[in-house]
Amino acid sequence: MSALPGVEPHLTEEEAEEVFALMLDGKVADDDIEAFLSALADRGETATEITGAARALRARLIPIEAPANAIDVCGTGGDGHHTLNVSTAVSLVVAACGVPVAKHGNRAASSKAGAADTLEALGLDMEAAGRTAEMTLREIGICFLFAANHHPAMRRIQPIRKKIGKRTIFNLMGPLSNPAHVKNQLIGIARPGYVPIYAEAMARLGTERSFIVSGDEGLDELSLSGGNEWAEVIGNDFEMHRIDASVAGLEHAPVEAIRGGDAAHNAAALRALLIGTPGPYRDAVLFNAAGALMVAGEVRTWAEGVEEAAEALDKGLAKALLDCWIDTVSKV
């Protein structure tokens, strides 16, 4: 087994890629990985370390073919707020607006219900959804790229993440390693102070246009509660912004208003959302969907994005899309 370096001094991009390659290839003992990831999280990851780690994971993924305009919408997780599944709902809404969504996600690592858990509770056969991902993305406009299916190198890492029980650099690596190689993303991260660091990593990796967002309370999505840090990444550069819900014409609401539960609870809330239930959950989804539609080039402003997303909900398009997706994969 190989030995890992200490976390001081900071690793260069090349050093980080080499270290994470060793981890992912099973050349480091589990206890050493646990200690390294915990120390790195406590110290705080740099842009070069995130970039190098993402490159190592990208080099080992199983890719899929996707439309050139496909996007991804996801959060890094690990924010500790245990909210309802906002990015999962946003994915359905945005796909219902005609933008292909290659939703990359996983089961819960440090929360009660990850995207895969909630979609499964809604009735989506995760094994069949994985087998049909390319087809459903092409024909319906959405797929779920279950991380376990596309990142086989992560299988030995997942139990270590569970044992650590808090966010690690793997939360940050996942959204940067979409198997569909999407060029446009809306990524929520759990630490507002890390938005420029993460945006730099995204810029180093290259993107067409992506937004990195974080609520001031440490929410890994755009928050209704107060302000949000927002980085717009275009190509290999980025700009920082501030935004709150009022810019999108939405009411402020505390994080507690969208507190979630287990997969069954979150699935029920999502179903209610899709049949028109108003409230903070709907507004949070509209806010984030607006950002995703802007990233996709579908709309120019936050207000336009909210309007288009609301129409997809109110006309039942997002519900119809989910029902079609569940029905399609169940027949394969």
TrEMBL record:
UniProt GO MF annotations: anthranilate phosphoribosyltransferase activity; magnesium ion binding
Chain sites annotated for binding anthranilate 2: R161
Superkingdom as given in the UniProt entry: Bacteria
UniProt key word Transferase: yes
Pfam families per the UniProt record, alphabetical: Glycos_trans_3N, Glycos_transf_3
Residues of the Glycosyl transferase family 3 N-terminal domain: 10-60
One GO cellular component, as annotated: cytosol
Reactions the enzyme catalyzes: N-(5-phospho-beta-D-ribosyl)anthranilate + diphosphate = 5-phospho-alpha-D-ribose 1-diphosphate + anthranilate
Residues engaged in binding Mg(2+) 1: S87, E221
Cofactor note: Binds 2 magnesium ions per monomer.
GO biological process: L-tryptophan biosynthetic process
SUPFAM superfamilies assigned to the protein according to its UniProt record, in alphabetical order: Nucleoside phosphorylase/phosphoribosyltransferase catalytic domain (SSF52418), Nucleoside phosphorylase/phosphoribosyltransferase N-terminal domain (SSF47648)
The enzyme's E.C. designation: 2.4.2.18
Occurrences of domain Glycosyl transferase family (ranges): 69-318
Keyword Cell inner membrane (UniProt): no
Sites where the protein binds anthranilate 1: G75, N106
Cofactor annotation: Mg(2+)
Sorted UniProt keywords: Amino-acid biosynthesis, Aromatic amino acid biosynthesis, Glycosyltransferase, Magnesium, Metal-binding, Transferase, Tryptophan biosynthesis
Annotated family: Belongs to the anthranilate phosphoribosyltransferase family.
Free-text function comment from the UniProt entry: Catalyzes the transfer of the phosphoribosyl group of 5-phosphorylribose-1-pyrophosphate (PRPP) to anthranilate to yield N-(5'-phosphoribosyl)-anthranilate (PRA).
Subunit structure: Homodimer.
PANTHER family (UniProt xref): ANTHRANILATE PHOSPHORIBOSYLTRANSFERASE
Protein name in UniProt: Anthranilate phosphoribosyltransferase
Species, as recorded: Croceibacterium soli
Gene for this chain: trpD
